[in-house]
Amino acid sequence: MNIKKMNPIKLGLLTIVLFTQMTFAESMKIIDKKVDIAVEQFKHEVPGGANFLPKVKGYLVFPSVIKAGLIIGGKYGEGALRVNNKTEHYYEMTAASVGLQFGAQEYSMLIAFLSDASLKNFINSNGWEAGVDGSITISDWGKSKDISSMSFEKPIIAFIYGEKGLMASVSITGTKFRRITP
Q1: Residue-wise pLDDT tens digits, 42-101
Q2: What's the pLDDT band for 140 if we cut at 50, 70, 90?
Q3: 3-state secondary structure 123-149
Q4: Which of 9, 60, 83, 134 is found 20 to 30 A from 49 (Cα to Cα)?
Protein backbone atom coordinates (compact mmCIF):
# COMPACT_ATOMS: atom_id res chain seq x y z
CA MET A 1 0.00 0.00 0.00
CA ASN A 2 1.48 3.32 -1.06
CA ILE A 3 0.56 5.91 1.60
CA LYS A 4 1.56 8.85 -0.63
CA LYS A 5 -1.06 7.87 -3.25
CA MET A 6 -3.80 7.16 -0.67
CA ASN A 7 -6.87 9.39 -0.54
CA PRO A 8 -6.54 11.82 2.43
CA ILE A 9 -9.91 10.71 3.82
CA LYS A 10 -8.87 7.05 3.73
CA LEU A 11 -5.52 7.94 5.29
CA GLY A 12 -7.31 9.82 8.08
CA LEU A 13 -9.67 6.90 8.72
CA LEU A 14 -6.75 4.45 8.77
CA THR A 15 -4.91 6.66 11.28
CA ILE A 16 -7.99 6.85 13.52
CA VAL A 17 -8.51 3.07 13.40
CA LEU A 18 -4.86 2.33 14.21
CA PHE A 19 -4.74 4.93 16.99
CA THR A 20 -8.01 3.66 18.49
CA GLN A 21 -6.76 0.07 18.48
CA MET A 22 -3.49 1.01 20.19
CA THR A 23 -5.28 3.13 22.80
CA PHE A 24 -7.85 0.41 23.40
CA ALA A 25 -5.19 -2.28 23.90
CA GLU A 26 -3.46 -0.09 26.45
CA SER A 27 -6.69 0.50 28.35
CA MET A 28 -7.20 -3.26 28.59
CA LYS A 29 -3.86 -3.53 30.40
CA ILE A 30 -4.97 -0.80 32.80
CA ILE A 31 -8.29 -2.55 33.42
CA ASP A 32 -6.43 -5.82 34.13
CA LYS A 33 -4.18 -4.11 36.68
CA LYS A 34 -7.18 -2.51 38.41
CA VAL A 35 -9.02 -5.86 38.40
CA ASP A 36 -5.97 -7.54 39.99
CA ILE A 37 -6.04 -4.95 42.80
CA ALA A 38 -9.83 -5.29 43.22
CA VAL A 39 -9.60 -9.11 43.47
CA GLU A 40 -6.93 -8.80 46.18
CA GLN A 41 -9.13 -6.27 47.98
CA PHE A 42 -12.07 -8.72 47.74
CA LYS A 43 -9.94 -11.49 49.26
CA HIS A 44 -8.85 -9.16 52.06
CA GLU A 45 -12.21 -7.50 52.86
CA VAL A 46 -14.59 -10.41 52.41
CA PRO A 47 -14.04 -13.22 54.94
CA GLY A 48 -13.55 -16.47 53.01
CA GLY A 49 -13.16 -14.62 49.69
CA ALA A 50 -9.83 -16.26 48.89
CA ASN A 51 -11.35 -19.74 49.40
CA PHE A 52 -14.59 -18.83 47.60
CA LEU A 53 -13.16 -17.68 44.24
CA PRO A 54 -11.56 -21.02 43.23
CA LYS A 55 -14.99 -22.68 43.69
CA VAL A 56 -16.84 -20.46 41.18
CA LYS A 57 -16.96 -21.02 37.41
CA GLY A 58 -16.00 -17.42 36.67
CA TYR A 59 -16.28 -13.93 38.07
CA LEU A 60 -16.81 -10.48 36.62
CA VAL A 61 -14.95 -7.71 38.44
CA PHE A 62 -15.66 -3.99 38.24
CA PRO A 63 -12.89 -2.30 40.26
CA SER A 64 -14.56 1.12 40.25
CA VAL A 65 -18.29 1.65 39.83
CA ILE A 66 -19.27 5.31 40.05
CA LYS A 67 -22.87 6.00 41.03
CA ALA A 68 -24.30 9.49 41.40
CA GLY A 69 -27.73 11.04 41.42
CA LEU A 70 -29.86 14.06 42.10
CA ILE A 71 -33.39 12.95 41.12
CA ILE A 72 -31.84 11.57 37.89
CA GLY A 73 -28.99 9.18 38.51
CA GLY A 74 -26.63 6.84 36.80
CA LYS A 75 -23.70 4.53 37.27
CA TYR A 76 -20.80 3.36 35.16
CA GLY A 77 -17.92 0.93 35.46
CA GLU A 78 -15.45 -1.07 33.37
CA GLY A 79 -14.18 -4.50 34.27
CA ALA A 80 -13.08 -7.95 33.22
CA LEU A 81 -14.53 -11.45 33.25
CA ARG A 82 -12.11 -13.97 34.68
CA VAL A 83 -12.33 -17.72 34.18
CA ASN A 84 -9.66 -19.87 35.86
CA ASN A 85 -7.99 -16.63 37.05
CA LYS A 86 -7.47 -15.51 33.43
CA THR A 87 -9.20 -12.56 31.74
CA GLU A 88 -11.54 -13.82 29.02
CA HIS A 89 -13.49 -10.66 28.10
CA TYR A 90 -13.87 -7.01 29.05
CA TYR A 91 -17.18 -5.39 29.96
CA GLU A 92 -18.74 -2.07 30.80
CA MET A 93 -21.78 -1.63 33.02
CA THR A 94 -24.25 1.24 32.83
CA ALA A 95 -27.52 2.13 34.51
CA ALA A 96 -29.80 5.12 34.68
CA SER A 97 -32.56 5.84 37.18
CA VAL A 98 -35.12 8.47 38.05
CA GLY A 99 -36.58 8.93 41.51
CA LEU A 100 -35.81 10.07 45.00
CA GLN A 101 -32.02 9.91 45.13
CA PHE A 102 -29.18 12.15 46.17
CA GLY A 103 -25.49 11.57 46.56
CA ALA A 104 -22.46 9.97 45.01
CA GLN A 105 -20.72 6.71 45.68
CA GLU A 106 -17.84 4.62 44.38
CA TYR A 107 -17.52 0.91 45.04
CA SER A 108 -16.10 -2.30 43.66
CA MET A 109 -18.33 -5.13 42.48
CA LEU A 110 -17.56 -8.79 41.94
CA ILE A 111 -20.21 -10.94 40.27
CA ALA A 112 -19.63 -14.66 40.78
CA PHE A 113 -21.07 -17.26 38.39
CA LEU A 114 -21.69 -20.42 40.39
CA SER A 115 -22.83 -22.66 37.53
CA ASP A 116 -21.49 -23.43 34.06
CA ALA A 117 -24.90 -22.59 32.58
CA SER A 118 -25.07 -19.12 34.14
CA LEU A 119 -21.53 -18.33 32.98
CA LYS A 120 -22.17 -19.65 29.46
CA ASN A 121 -25.44 -17.70 29.14
CA PHE A 122 -23.70 -14.50 30.20
CA ILE A 123 -20.76 -14.96 27.82
CA ASN A 124 -23.00 -15.84 24.87
CA SER A 125 -25.35 -12.91 25.38
CA ASN A 126 -25.17 -9.82 23.23
CA GLY A 127 -25.63 -7.28 25.99
CA TRP A 128 -27.20 -8.40 29.25
CA GLU A 129 -29.50 -6.67 31.70
CA ALA A 130 -29.64 -7.67 35.36
CA GLY A 131 -33.17 -8.57 36.40
CA VAL A 132 -34.27 -9.11 32.79
CA ASP A 133 -31.73 -11.48 31.24
CA GLY A 134 -30.47 -12.92 34.52
CA SER A 135 -31.32 -12.88 38.17
CA ILE A 136 -28.46 -11.69 40.35
CA THR A 137 -28.60 -11.80 44.12
CA ILE A 138 -26.65 -9.15 46.00
CA SER A 139 -24.97 -11.04 48.81
CA ASP A 140 -25.69 -9.83 52.32
CA TRP A 141 -22.62 -11.55 53.74
CA GLY A 142 -21.93 -9.31 56.70
CA LYS A 143 -18.40 -8.53 57.83
CA SER A 144 -18.11 -11.58 60.08
CA LYS A 145 -19.52 -14.37 57.86
CA ASP A 146 -17.16 -16.62 55.95
CA ILE A 147 -18.62 -16.74 52.42
CA SER A 148 -16.70 -19.89 51.47
CA SER A 149 -18.93 -21.88 53.85
CA MET A 150 -22.23 -20.26 52.78
CA SER A 151 -24.66 -21.83 50.31
CA PHE A 152 -26.32 -19.59 47.76
CA GLU A 153 -29.72 -20.23 46.15
CA LYS A 154 -29.13 -18.29 42.92
CA PRO A 155 -26.47 -19.18 40.32
CA ILE A 156 -25.19 -15.56 40.13
CA ILE A 157 -24.12 -13.65 43.25
CA ALA A 158 -22.88 -10.05 43.40
CA PHE A 159 -20.65 -8.68 46.12
CA ILE A 160 -20.35 -4.95 46.75
CA TYR A 161 -17.25 -3.88 48.68
CA GLY A 162 -14.85 -0.99 49.15
CA GLU A 163 -17.66 1.59 49.31
CA LYS A 164 -16.73 5.27 49.42
CA GLY A 165 -19.21 8.13 49.55
CA LEU A 166 -22.86 8.18 50.48
CA MET A 167 -25.82 6.96 48.45
CA ALA A 168 -29.12 5.67 49.80
CA SER A 169 -29.08 2.20 48.24
CA VAL A 170 -27.25 -0.22 45.98
CA SER A 171 -29.25 -2.05 43.34
CA ILE A 172 -28.16 -3.78 40.17
CA THR A 173 -31.61 -4.38 38.71
CA GLY A 174 -31.71 -2.66 35.33
CA THR A 175 -27.93 -2.50 35.08
CA LYS A 176 -26.78 -3.25 31.55
CA PHE A 177 -23.59 -5.17 30.85
CA ARG A 178 -21.97 -4.89 27.43
CA ARG A 179 -18.83 -6.59 26.18
CA ILE A 180 -16.00 -4.32 25.10
CA THR A 181 -14.18 -5.89 22.18
CA PRO A 182 -10.58 -5.01 21.32
Answers
A1: 999 888 899 999 999 999 999 999 988 887 888 899 999 999 999 999 999 998 877 767
A2: low
A3: HHCCCEEECCCECCEECCCCCCCCHHH
A4: 134
Q: 24 and 67 in one domain? A: no
DSSP state of 64: E
**Cα separations in angstroms, 17 against 2, 22, 78, 151:** 18, 9, 22, 47
138 and 125, same structural domain? yes
End-to-end CA distance of the chain: 24
The beta-strand segments (E) located in the chain are 58-83, 86-113, 128-129, 137-138, 156-166, 176-180
b/e burial code for range 92-115 (CB count within 10 A of at least 16 → b): ebebebeeebeeebbbbbbbbbbe
Total domain count, the chain: 2
The reply to whether 17 and 53 lie within a common domain is: no
